[in-house]
Amino acid sequence: MTTNAAARYASVVFLKIQDFARRSVSEQTRLRAQLEAVVAVTTAELPIASRIVLDAADGIAVAVLGDPAGALRIAERSLAANSAGLPLCVGINHGAVQMAGDRAGDGMIGDGIAVAASIADFSSPSRLLISRSFRDAMADAVPGLEAALSPAGTFNDAGLRTHELYSPDDRAPARRRRRFVAIAVATAIALPAAGVAVRVSAEGHQKVLDGIAGKYRNASAQAEQYLRGLLDSVPWLKRS
Predict the structure, then answer these.
(1) What is the DSSP annotation of 164-218?
(2) Tell me: the pLDDT tens digits for 184-209?
(3) Do 166 and 151 form a contact (C-beta atoms < 8 A)?
(4) What is the DSSP letter of 49?
(5) Are 54 and 63 in contact (CB under 8 A)?
(6) Which helix H or strand E contains 162, and what residues bound it?
(7) Are the beta carbons of 50 and 66 closer than 8 angstroms?
(8) What is the DSSP string of 82-151?
(9) What residues in the chain have per-residue pLDDT under 50?
(10) What is the largest CA-CA distance in the chain?
(11) Closest by alpha carbon to 94, among 153, 125, 140, 48?
(12) CB atoms < 10 A from the CB of 150, how many?
């Protein structure tokens, strides 16, 4: 088998039918026909030139060129087929792919496809697993979208290769916003505190404490004056 074409990087969505080899021939035929229909529907929005659909022994791999977000949409929409009785295990990777021969119909090979297949092996129906390299590609292509991908653990494949995997989590961006708010609040508290520490070192504890106490006394006097004015302007408050 010749591989004359140069390798390219692509986002590979591997759609694996769970326990495909253990099923009867008639069931395999039915499930594969369903999977082909799912792929036809979910990839329709992408330009034909940017996607390559590849048959696998137990499913289908879709290589998407230059559009990690599009690959993620294909994977997420394909998972909906589980509710219709198509048991799909889905894995996504971003890596090198290469034409397997001189003709367009010869298919593709490469580490990008092999790793995507391994990740699909780790997955289960209704669960999508994503490689670290795909998450990085997503961050480069559409900064911010990678925040919705949360760590799903570390897995070792049959070749003892370690994979750091992620999974979509709609709550992840909200958690990140809460962390940012907490950091902002801590910073807002820390900066004045640092200013007080500098004043203490420069002026001495007692002088700084006297100054703070004076500010609170002034604030208290202003509050008392405001309340007296309010009582004078609203007669019924005086009687309560």
Answers:
(1) EEEEE-TTHHHHHHHHHHHHHHHHHHHHHHHHHHHHHHHH-HHHHHHHHHHHHHH
(2) 444 444 444 555 454 545 556 566 55
(3) yes
(4) G
(5) yes
(6) strand 162-168
(7) yes
(8) GGGT--EEEEEEEEEEEESSSSGGG-EESHHHHHHHHHHHH--TT-EEEEHHHHHHHHHHSTTGGGGEEE
(9) 1-2, 173-192, 196, 198, 200, 234, 236-240
(10) 99
(11) 140
(12) 14
Q: Which tokens go with 11?
A: 């986002």
Using only C-alpha atoms, the chain has a radius of gyration, in whole angstroms, of 30
Closest by CA to 11, choosing from 124, 137, 144, 142, is 137
Query: What does the block give as tokens for 24?
Result: 């009867």
Are 109 and 97 spatial neighbours (Cβ–Cβ below 8 Å)?
yes
- What sign has the CA pseudo-torsion 33, 35, 41, 46? negative
Q: Parallel, antiparallel, or unpaired for β 149-156 and 88-99?
A: unpaired
Q: Is residue 115 a contact partner of residue 32, using CB atoms and an 8 Å limit?
A: no
Which pLDDT score is estimated for 11?
Answer: 96
* Residue 86 and residue 120 in contact, taking contact as beta carbons nearer than 8 Å: no
Would you say 148 and 172 are in contact if contact means Cβ atoms under 8 Å apart? yes
Number of C-alpha atoms within 13 angstroms, CB side, residue 164?
8
User: Could you tell me the two tokens for 138?
Assistant: 């997503």
Place of tokens 């999974």: 167
